[in-house]
């Protein structure tokens, strides 16, 4: 949901904003095109509509909490935007943006409330900007949050006419005594993995370098292992787990979540493990999707380097007591989330890090 900003062009004989490359009318057209999508994200707490200087959210909704804690996060989608640019597909990248922001927020058990976006372009193409916002709005619906504001900035001279980038910020809320994290984790807890939808939105600098630059693969080339083109695989939207995670907290006991993003599974899991404990993950409990093997094999990338860069097929982790495993898997299964027990929490012993991957991937 984005507003463009600018000034009134000068006289025909003088300098003008339009002559400098900023098209205010195109920006206004983009706003009109995106309105219907933004409306789909509306929650009862949202006040006002598109066009204000700030998005308004009725904080009296927090009265239902005894001690509400606000959770906030901001992120982008990295160089995955270049794949979208090359393919001319703009209505999926917004899903990635919402996932990167709101799935960070839900890790502490917070309910996503609202989000704002920032879209930076070299030249405003109204339909293109509207398509990006359409994807963001659809993502917000999947995360259960409202899209309350945003900005579209036109940067001629700094970005090419077809170049763009996206970023977003979000806010959620959680009851203080239901805050999830390291303090709740106990030895014997189970590590429940939730399958990723693919590469998600991390590691694309490596992926692009290996597949497009070094190997020279074409985005429109069909890859038999994928059953579709390389470009379609690389643009597969990041799965949004927010409502799935919240459903888990309502149906069973959860001690912590970990969103697997940049740094890979072990590094992100270690972020929520207390110093005295260790998370042991068994690679043999799942088979990474073919795209991970393609990147590794094509670029001769060592396994540990792949695991430090890509999610390897796991997008979110839930740490639950052993007695909650069946209920957790049942809830996720009912919601269509592929999930399994991938490991356990043990004593720290001689481990130097908070989480390790052991064994070999299933084939």
UniProtKB/TrEMBL annotation:
Its EC number is 6.3.3.1. SUPFAM superfamilies: PurM C-terminal domain-like, PurM N-terminal domain-like. Keywords: ATP-binding, Cytoplasm, Ligase, Nucleotide-binding, Purine biosynthesis. It is an enzyme of class 6 (ligase). One of its GO terms (biological process) is adenine biosynthetic process. Residues 66-174 form the PurM-like N-terminal domain. Coiled coil: none annotated. One of its GO terms (cellular component) is cytosol. It comes from the Bacteria. GO terms for molecular function: ATP binding; phosphoribosylamine-glycine ligase activity; phosphoribosylformylglycinamidine cyclo-ligase activity. It is found in: Cytoplasm. Pathway: Purine metabolism; IMP biosynthesis via de novo pathway; 5-amino-1-(5-phospho-D-ribosyl)imidazole from N(2)-formyl-N(1)-(5-phospho-D-ribosyl)glycinamide: step 2/2. Pfam families: AIRS, AIRS_C. NCBIfam families: purM. This is Phosphoribosylformylglycinamidine cyclo-ligase. The lineage of its organism: Bacteria, Bacillati, Actinomycetota, Actinomycetes, Kitasatosporales.
